[in-house]
């Protein structure tokens, strides 16, 4: 079953983080970022998950589409990278799933080992 999982990450630098996220994750997936439209996409694991990124003046809105079984994994990958990039702004990524199951939450942890 395919579901969507959405995170609205409060930040006044949404376009900057969207561009950084697509650039970084684009090393292992197909990624685009439209500077003028402040919008991007990620196509991960050969279509196993896709993410739409849209920046507003107050947030980066991420809509992830994947299987229910893979949702937590892809939420974590996207969210973990984003909070690491935005640790100075104390970004928090809280996912809400369309199927009603609890989404995950990512918060920067300075004690974590990073890639």
What would you note in describing this structure?
The chain has 115 residues and is an alpha+beta fold. It has a single domain (2-107), classed as TATA-Binding Protein. 23% of the residues lie in helices and 42% in strands. It has two helices and seven strands, in the order βαββββαββ. Strands 2-3-4-5-1-6-7 form a seven-stranded antiparallel β-sheet, covered by helices on one side. The longest helix is centred in the C-terminal third of the chain and has 15 residues, at 71-85. The termini are far apart. 33% of the residues are buried. The model has no long low-confidence stretch (mean pLDDT 94).
**Numbering strands along the chain, what is their spatial order in the largest sheet?**
2-3-4-5-1-6-7
For the record, what is the CATH homologous superfamily label? Alpha-D-phosphohexomutase, C-terminal domain
Note the total helix count: 2
CATH class, please? Alpha Beta
Shape: globular
InterPro entries: UCP028291
Biased composition (Polar residues): 96-107
Pfam families: DUF2218
Protein name: DUF2218 domain-containing protein
Question: What's the layout of helices and strands?
Answer:
Blueprint: E1 2-10, H1 14-25, E2 30-34, E3 39-44, E4 49-55, E5 59-67, H2 71-85, E6 92-97, E7 102-107
Antiparallel strand pairs: 1-5, 1-6, 2-3, 3-4, 4-5, 6-7
Helix pairs in contact: 1-2
Summary, kept brief:
By secondary structure, this protein is α+β, with helices and mostly antiparallel strands.
Question: Which characteristics define this entry?
Answer:
single chain; 115 residues; alpha+beta; TATA-Binding Protein; seven-stranded antiparallel sheet
